[in-house]
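Researcher: I'm preparing a figure for a lab meeting and need a structural model of a single chain. I don't have an experimental structure, so a prediction will have to do for now. The sequence is pasted below. Please return the structure as tokens so I can convert it later.
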Amino acid sequence: MAIKTQWQSVIFVACMIMLAMMSGSVRADEVPLITGEHWTKSSEQLKKAYLVGIANVVQVETAYAGSSPPAEAQSVVPRLAKGLKGHTLDSVRDALDAWYAAHPDRLQRPVIETIWFELVVPGLQKSK
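Model: Understood. Here is the structure written out token by token.
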């Protein structure tokens, strides 16, 4: 039952963000770049909603490309997917929590940058 409640919360937050954006109250150029400061102050549901958003972008891009995926030089999506292979939303969240806890002086670092350099790049190195 707890998992169902968590997912309902994640979906609710994602819907609220989308609703705010569609209503015109939040313009795309006003959406903040999420940093470690935001991350460390966020609830587990908000963290998961952020990661679900990234995962959805990867899934949409992958589905759109179909059997003709873009070359790595044309899109970061293939590298992102390959570098995160084997990770779950929970493992990415835990890795981010651990990284920001170990680097409290780096809270201004964007979360997407931390995902890239601390998870994706090492994942790509392992897959070579």
